[in-house]
DNA sequence: TAGTGGTCTAGACCACCCA
DNA sequence: GGGTGGTCTAGACCACTAG
């Protein structure tokens, strides 16, 4: 193979290799629970060790394999981390777990933002923004109250959607917006009057709250959302490793 | 610099660079919000571009900077992801946020595990294990009920501790155990009779539950724990990026 | 001591963004 | 078109583990 044959293509080699290895692991190859050495993998796939290591770093970060100097890599499991998109979109998450997602828009406002709202979106105080309030359902049962803020340029895309549009993420992605990073914060709160009405529960009932902020590759905030789930409907799973930790616990 | 001057040392160069950049960012250098190019950083620090990229990958994974082909890296913030150890240890977490941690052991059992318990620890059904039940406090106020399972070899280390030992992690680390990976699962439950007694709340009160499984570099499970926090005492924050996602949402 | 993963280098080409 | 980050190579030495 010639030097510099960087046939990056749409999908780089290291991602393909990572996907292949994942599949191989899931299908039960490597019964001994250990991966071939990096050198071996490189030879088998006709690539350099550096590329193999990129693939393995991906698996490592997702908790599929461990790594320790001196010994072969150990297989931990298939580690079902979701696609990034499923983490953002209630709709595609629901479909991925075999449920039928639904949504009903209860409020769609185009107005100047409150100070805290503008702050969340990194906008000047008083900037115009979009606010959307929706009830989300699984198999027609309400499970989540969703409040989302969009900067003007983003929310405008959603203005034409009907009140029963299922996904609000899909139109945004179709529009060419690129969601690169997410910051999640998870805690427990009690339902206010509005939550109670939306989810048909007594005021004060406990809810699992997930607040999210999404940014594009240049750091511009694309949306901020506050999702409140009924107990028992979801749980959040996180993998963290000593090498790369991207989770924290805050004083409530 | 000679080829192969891999002065890996205790702390590799790329980690030092990452730490330096973090500090520089926090201290307000780079007022324009953009990082110098990789080439520039490499020249400034006398290292190769590959090493610089390792450092930047770390910052990227923690949400400190973004990256996009064609444009300089954009600074997102100081992104306060905690040290891996603080995520594992209630004690060191509490101290890091300026609280006074405490603990009182309510049960310390050495017994054969239930089938589900052995499964969590990857042990044969019926294996001996240690079970510890503790009330954890912040500034002497109970905020969390902690139930932990240890395989025999690990739990044995804790047998000599008194009922008011504050940290159970420190002795384990001192013993030479290496915690490499954590799997967290976060959801909402209601207090059972035992929780109610420990936390002095009515039975059925909502609690934020974090279940954790820690493994060493070879994949051996070192402990499993079930922590139940009072509402308002903690929140969990996770960063995920399109490149490396290690979080998922499950149907409750 | 042989073999593994961890770190590092010096070079290359490519895809992309912006002036 | 010039500069940026993304991908890839082929080599090197080191630190560690295990037989």
What can you tell me about this protein's structure?
The structure is a homodimer of 252-residue chains. The first copy, chain A, has 252 residues and is of the alpha+beta class. Chain A has nine helices and eight strands. Chain A has helices at 13-26, 38-45, 49-61, 84-88, 90-96, 115-120, 152-155, 169-174, 193-199, and strands spanning 101-112, 128-138, 141-151, 181-190, 206-215, 221-229, 234-241, 247-251. A six-stranded antiparallel sheet of chain A has the order 1-2-3-6-5-4. Chain A is elongated, with a radius of gyration of 22 Å. The N and C termini of chain A lie far apart (56 Å). Mean pLDDT of chain A is 92; it is low at 1-9. Chains A and B meet through α4, β4, β5, β7 and β8 of A and α4, β4, β5, β7 and β8 of B. The structure holds a DNA duplex (19 and 19 nucleotides).
């Amino acid at each position: 193979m010639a030097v510099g044959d960087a046939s990056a293509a749409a999908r780089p080699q290291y991602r393909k290799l990572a996907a292949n290895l994942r599949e191989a692991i899931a299908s039960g190859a490597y019964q001994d629970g250990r991966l071939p050495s990096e050198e071996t993998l490189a030879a088998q796939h006709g690539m350099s060790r550096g590329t193999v290591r990129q693939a393995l770093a991906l698996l490592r970060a997702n908790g599929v394999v461990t790594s320790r100097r001196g010994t072969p890599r150990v297989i931990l499991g298939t580690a079902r981390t979701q696609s990034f998109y499923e983490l953002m979109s209630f709709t595609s998450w629901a479909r991925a777990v075999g449920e039928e997602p639904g949504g009903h828009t209860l409020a769609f406002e185009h107005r100047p933002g409150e100070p805290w709202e503008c702050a969340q979106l990194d906008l000047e105080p008083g900037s115009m923004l979009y606010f959307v309030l929706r009830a989300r359902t699984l198999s027609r049962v309400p499970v989540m109250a969703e409040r989302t803020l969009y900067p003007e340029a983003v929310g405008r895309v959603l203005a034409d959607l009907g009140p029963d549009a299922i996904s609000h993420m899909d139109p945004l992605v179709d529009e060419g917006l690129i969601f690169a990073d997410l910051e999640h914060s998870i805690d427990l709160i009690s339902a206010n009057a509005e939550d109670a009405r939306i989810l048909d529960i007594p005021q004060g009932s406990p809810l699992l709250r997930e607040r999210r902020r999404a940014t594009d590759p240049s750091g511009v905030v694309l949306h901020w959302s506050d999702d409140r789930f009924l107990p028992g409907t979801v749980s959040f799973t996180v993998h963290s490793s000593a090498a790369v930790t991207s989770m924290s616990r805050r004083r409530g």
